Amino acid sequence: MNPDMLKDLCASVVHRLSLRPTTVEAALLVTLHHFSGESRNPAVAYIGLTPDQYVLRSLSTPRFEATLASAALKAEGREADARLNWEAFVQREQETARLAHEAIPKTALLTDTDAIHRIGRQLGLCGECTDQLVSGVVLTLALGYPYRLADQWHLSLTDLLAQVTTEELTELLRHAAHSEAGRTEEAAAALRRMQRAVR
């Protein structure tokens, strides 16, 4: 861990949100625990990161700061502010994902509406449902961008989105559809298939 980076991050959250330093420090432990839990996912080992490397890389992501800020706000009893803080983060990430998606070459799968709808129909989804789920899939891929494979570090988010294959999009849509419908077991099975495919 980089103590100076953590100290600067905490100070930034304290000043930006008018929080007590002790509250933010306690929230930092909760946030580190959360990301440490994520670091044991088999997909992390696949991308060539140790759990410590995953957590270290997470420190500089907007998601880490947003998670820390929301945890600190909740700890101070400011539930509404915590929710608004998280929603603002998600909106910023959605805008980043949307802009990257719009910049994809017209030859890429994620810009081919007909191909996307064909995949959706194979999964029993209507066109409108598929469009909504694709937006979520793009956001999910954008959130995972900081943890891309070592040989993909030189690629922009737009480049990565342009490389999504039919098989990958099918599994991502299947997982998203199951999650949306509350079918947690099927969603978990789809996630395991995706993780096995990338090992």
Fraction in helix: over 70%
Task: List the total number of helices.
Answer: 11
| β-sheet strand percentage | under 5%
Largest sheet, if any?
A: none
Assign the structural class, choosing from mainly alpha, mainly beta, alpha/beta, alpha+beta, or little secondary structure: mainly alpha
Number of strands: 0
Outline? globular
Radius of gyration: 18 Å
Mean pLDDT comes to 90
Tags for this model:
199 residues, mainly alpha
What does this structure look like?
With 199 residues, the chain is mainly α. 73% of the residues lie in helices and 0% in strands. Helix 5 runs antiparallel to helix 6, helix 8 packs across helix 10 and helix 10 runs antiparallel to helix 11. The radius of gyration is 18 Å and the shape is globular.
Helices and strands in order:
Blueprint: H1 3-17, H2 21-38, H3 42-46, H4 51-58, H5 62-75, H6 79-102, H7 113-122, H8 127-143, H9 157-162, H10 166-180, H11 184-197
Helix pairs in contact: 1-2, 1-5, 2-4, 2-5, 5-6, 6-8, 7-8, 8-10, 10-11
Write a compact overview of the structure shown:
The chain is mainly α and 199 residues long. 73% of the residues lie in helices and 0% in strands.
